[in-house]
Design brief:
45% helix; five-stranded parallel sheet; alpha/beta; 16 strands; homodimer; 17 helices; six-stranded mixed sheet
């Protein structure tokens, strides 16, 4: 297709969304002109299903739950007055709490004001807040944010070292929907110990965001934490960024959360359209379906040309892969669905993997994200009459053209400027696109059964570790191989796990395990230096 | 395969590398027992080719260049005394310069010591340094590092705001092998302007790392920068991390660069082995080849269970995709090669896309990276007798088991501890694995022709912008559509590019372009508010 034909196709398919300052360009996906028409029956079914979801249907049947993230920004649409009330009350509570913290009415024991915010959470309770914080943070932020999002003791220690003595005026959020996420619990315990080390009460610096009645909720209540904010079973972790999970840290940072919600609500209004050509979420989902043949046959590469959007691809990686990556469809047929997502930012990635995108295996489609406004004020001319931002824009166009030239498909989203409304809109756009896509391929986008399997197997390893250590302590100073121990503790079927537990334990001082190296590492012997 | 069979296979294939504290486990890739034997002729050819490469053959024929990154850590192997001398002299110069900076003998104009380091570079001149800095940084670092790795004016401004008044004692490195990378040049110009704004001489705070005789080299010489360090045409950007590109910032940060080099040299020694079962780089390459059928048919997911290794997947994404993602093989046949790479870190990613890995489309193989030592000292018990690090280890094993159970293949690298030697070894391991793989599939791993296409097309957009703006200024206050302008400047074939230039220019104040919105956005009209 030559440039003129491309331009005609561009004009034909350009989806203009002035209310959110956005355009979506699907013209460089190589669908035939009858594609959207052919898909229309399925698309209309998806609209109906989305209507039902928004009206409070059990859209997550496995977990027998409603799916309500759209109500968060339009509480009037909630299916009951009680839910509407909960949303509105929580938003008010977030704003009141934030006001009190900023005004120094809620304050740390030994300082006038909280100036640092440490957020402990993982997955849906981390990526959304991290993305928003990075996208919208400025030097005028009211609080400095830190995140602990793993159970890596060294990583936790590093964040605590970075905060250092400022822990005195650090407010800590513990975010866990279920209230039982082990990584988050571990982070909380390590952080609580750090407060104690400075002779500070963790409880007087702590806030919980969690489901009512959860383990974490009980702890926060019993120990009189500064505050707690609810999560609801009709909000999934990966779509929780516009609930207290994301709004509370954003508000505390100084981001205008009403604008985030407004942008999302405006995008929702647009993407409820049943006129496919004017519905950017439907067009995204249909473009994905075309590229991947509805079977994940191509990867989705996300290329935002803006440093502040660096975490957007990772946020989408979670949203899309965890929602769509399913073994079974809603009829219980094995389908092994999903779309793989990756990317960082342009122009930077051009000097990394874009070489492969242009020349290598054609196993992807790209999504370019353009932000037209470069920044505040007038820019430096790096060449006569050319700014750094002009170059950024030219690199986006140039790279996209180079991909088109070689038959690589791409989408492009343009937003006028990067601010709270446009971030809210981007979030809402992809939430709904994922919802539509899931309906097109008939999977439940709102559960995550596969995550449980790994957790369960990890629990088995922890249990096995207890047995291995107990055995060694019961036979202290006697050396055994992994195989011998596995046999002795009646875990003959798990010698590899036993071996790995021993290798880990013998390198760290915590369990006082010593190792006598074997000829091959797998023949090494291990002993406890202390009896139990 | 049951656990006992898996354990037998584990023992059979485990590649032990005690000299670098590493093991590689390929047992959970589903190759048949005769696979390595069948591949052995090709593998032996790859060993030969690698020998030739290390001896100074023109291993990058397109650019008529030798490929010498292995000499950086074993200068005695360089093919000429002159090259050996250059490597050794540069290493000495890096150490001398670093000593002088740390000792305050080289100092900023208005302070006693440089305490901040701002590194400007992109792609190979950024990712390696960023990875090492993040992996090995501690609170005892001698200098605080900042990176500018894009031509995003807002992103640049953000880094400069973060540095703020500390620019006074900030040493700025400008890293560009070719000395002509536009993004880096733009970053340099913006940073130089920031120094001037504080009435500081940029030149007295600047250091260059670049090819001798390059544009940047000339500027650094002419303007008497504090120092400059050479790059050579026999080092590619993505394998430059153990040249001055990576060693200089690492040394200035306070990282023991001799240990980095030592770890890499030890790994090189191991991976020169022609006994495939004991050569971890060959086993990696062969495992990739098996999983992807030598055609990029599966993605490589990298899952390091360590916060400090968070940038490792992104570093590998560049190294692997830019090296392997090629249109043509060495015989000029069109092959569209490559392997897509993505990942962040475990356990965190378990709460994101691991759902899809376990249950969804089976289009990947995973590489788990375990670090056995959790950190310094004794850890907190988060459960009786269980540490956060035990959980991290259990999550790795549990998730890997959950993938195995569902027929998803994986590799596992275990390193004893994360330190400079092990980071050097990891870098060297993957550099050689990529080299081997390229030889197995017969592509040139050391050029990047596809990157040029995008650059060229971006240059065309910049040129077109100049013409568009000149036309509007020549007709100031008259409004035109994109199509009209394209026609007028004889770029009828590029209305889409003209339109995008106008949309960008009209949102930013730099070029003084105003917009009169059309019925549809593509019909908008634009005018210059000033004549030229």
């Amino acid at each position: 297709m030559n440039n003129i034909a491309l331009w005609e196709r561009y004009k034909k398919y350009l989806c203009e969304c002035p209310s959110i300052g956005m355009t979506l360009d699907i013209s460089r996906m190589n669908f035939a002109d009858d594609y959207l028409v052919r898909m229309e029956p399925g698309t209309q079914k998806a609209y109906q299903a989305m209507d039902a979801l928004e009206s409070g249907a059990i859209a997550n049947p496995d977990e027998n739950r409603m799916v309500g993230h759209y109500w968060l920004r339009s509480p009037g649409l909630a299916p009951s007055a009680a839910i509407r009330q909960e949303i509105e009350d929580t938003l008010r509570a977030i704003k009141d709490f934030t006001f009190s913290v900023h005004a120094g009415k809620i304050f740390p024991r030994k300082r006038a004001r909280f100036t640092h915010l440490l957020s402990i959470g993982i997955g849906g309770s981390a990526l959304g807040p991290q993305f928003i914080s990075d996208a919208l943070g400025t030097s005028a932020d009211k609080m400095k944010l830190h995140f602990i999002d793993n159970t890596d003791p060294d990583g936790i220690n590093r964040v605590l070292t970075e905060i250092g003595g400022d822990l005195v005026d650090t407010l800590t959020l513990v975010i866990s929907k279920s209230g039982g996420t082990i990584e988050t619990r571990n982070g909380m315990l390590e952080v609580a110990a750090a407060y104690r080390k400075l002779k500070l009460s963790f409880e007087r610096h702590a806030v919980a965001v969690t489901g009512v009645g959860s383990k974490l909720d009980e702890i926060a209540k019993k120990d009189c934490w500064l505050a707690k904010f609810p999560m609801w079973d009709w909000i999934g972790g990966r779509t929780s960024v516009l609930s207290a999970v994301g709004l509370l840290p954003a508000a505390l940072q100084g981001i205008h959360i009403e604008s985030l919600l407004k942008g999302a609500a405006l995008c929702d209004a647009l993407t409820r359209s049943k006129n496919t050509l004017t519905n950017p979420a439907a067009l995204l989902a249909l473009s994905w379906h075309h590229a991947t043949e509805g079977k994940g046959k191509k990867d989705m590469v996300i290329l935002p040309y803006k440093d502040r959007l660096m975490l957007f691809p990772r946020y989408l990686q979670q949203l899309i892969m965890e929602s769509l990556g399913k073994e079974k469809d809603l009829n219980n047929a094995v389908v092994n669905q999903g779309i793989s997502v990756y990317g960082n930012k342009g122009a930077t990635d051009q000097h990394a993997y874009v070489q492969q995108l242009r020349d290598g295996v054609n196993n992807f489609f790209a999504t370019f994200v353009e932000v037209r406004k470069d920044g505040e004020g007038v820019s430096l001319a790096v060449d006569p009459g050319v700014t750094s931002g002009d170059y950024l824009n030219a690199y986006l166009q140039g790279t996209r053209n180079a991909l088109t030239e070689n038959g690589r498909q791409s989408l492009a989203i343009s937003i006028e400027k990067l601010d709270a409304p446009s971030i809210g809109a981007l979030i809402a756009l992809y939430e709904r696109a994922v919802g539509f896509y899931a309906m097109l391929v008939n999977v439940n986008a709102y559960h995550q059964p596969g995550v449980e399997a790994g957790k369960k197997m990890a629990g088995a390893v922890i249990k096995l570790q207890g047995e291995v250590l107990a055995f060694l302590r019961g036979n202290s100073d006697n050396y055994f191989t992994a195989e011998e121990i596995a046999l002795a503790i009646k875990s003959e079927e798990s010698p590899e796990s036993v071996f790995k537990i021993l290798e880990h334990a013998s390198v760290n001082p915590d369990h006082k395990i010593k190792k006598s190296p074997g000829n091959r590492i797998v023949d090494s012997k291990y002993a406890a230096t202390e009896s139990s």
